[in-house]
Design a protein that fits this description.
The protein is 15% helix and 30% strand. The chain has 250 residues and is α/β, with parallel strands linked by helices.
Length: 250
């Protein structure tokens, strides 16, 4: 299974991570991944840090703006920005992410942004994702039944009433995007919608005006290169080749 957690946290938990086959298994086991971890953070003014349910680990290079509430277990990695008035609980925020609003039981891979208000719950966010202002996930069905997810062509019961979204690398969502429980958005996709999009969006798709069209690989690369250059990182030819091989199979 792909190792969804990068960085320096939980390096002694690799065995348990390798036993997890699906992202929702990792989400449901976030608290277990903090076993034998201790809180590490510097003193902050006008910030509430609650360790009652688990440790809070904040890298020294992270910036936590005032009037935020951080509930453990929680990891905030290198060069992250947590914006004012955020509430973050039971989550892993990998390095170089920008996060705002309410986040609960979610995992961010590096270099992803949720820089505005909106609720993100029980979700997995890949790298280089940008969630537009007000992007919100549903993580609980109205009838409290288990959430199912379309995965490798099959509809799989997550075994939990709580699950939000899986959002692949390089995905962009427009302002006001609402995602239903169990939504899977394939890598490289662009979501422009004021109503709920389908619960499965194939990789490298543009969802606009309730239609799904495939994004050209050149257009995808142009957008990815612009986003990555903002972090002074380039899209290498080797990475392009890997992405193109994925693109051809979609």
């Amino acid at each position: 299974m792909k190792n969804f957690i990068s960085g320096t946290i939980l390096f002694d938990q690799k065995a348990s991570l390798n036993d997890m086959q699906f992202p929702w298994e990792m989400i449901s086991n976030i608290s277990n991944l903090f076993t034998n971890q201790s809180s590490t953070f510097k003193n902050y003014e006008n910030i509430i840090i609650n360790e009652e349910n688990g440790p809070v680990i904040i890298n020294d290079s992270a910036i936590i703006e005032p009037f935020s509430v951080l509930n453990g277990p929680l990891f905030v990695g290198n060069n992250c920005l947590i914006k004012s008035h955020s509430t973050i609980s039971n989550s892993i925020i990998n390095h170089d992410c920008k996060v705002s609003g309410e986040v609960h039981s979610s995992i961010f891979q590096p270099y992803s942004n949720k820089a505005h208000e909106g609720f993100l719950g029980h979700s997995f966010i890949g790298s280089w994702v940008n969630l537009g202002a007000g992007t919100t996930t549903s993580n609980l069905k109205n009838n409290y039944s288990n959430v199912s997810v379309k995965w490798d062509g099959d509809l799989i019961d997550t075994g939990s009433i709580f699950f939000g979204s899986i959002i692949g690398d390089h995905v962009k969502t427009a302002i006001g995007t609402n995602l239903n429980t169990g939504t899977v958005i394939g890598m490289g996709s662009n979501i422009v919608s004021q109503s709920f999009p389908p619960r499965y969006i194939p990789p490298f798709s543009l969802y606009y005006r309730e239609k799904i069209t495939k994004i050209s690989f050149d257009d995808f690369c142009k957008t990815a290169e612009k986003a990555m250059s903002r972090r002074k990182i380039s899209l290498s030819e080797e990475e392009k080749d890997k992405l193109h091989n994925i693109y051809k199979t979609c």
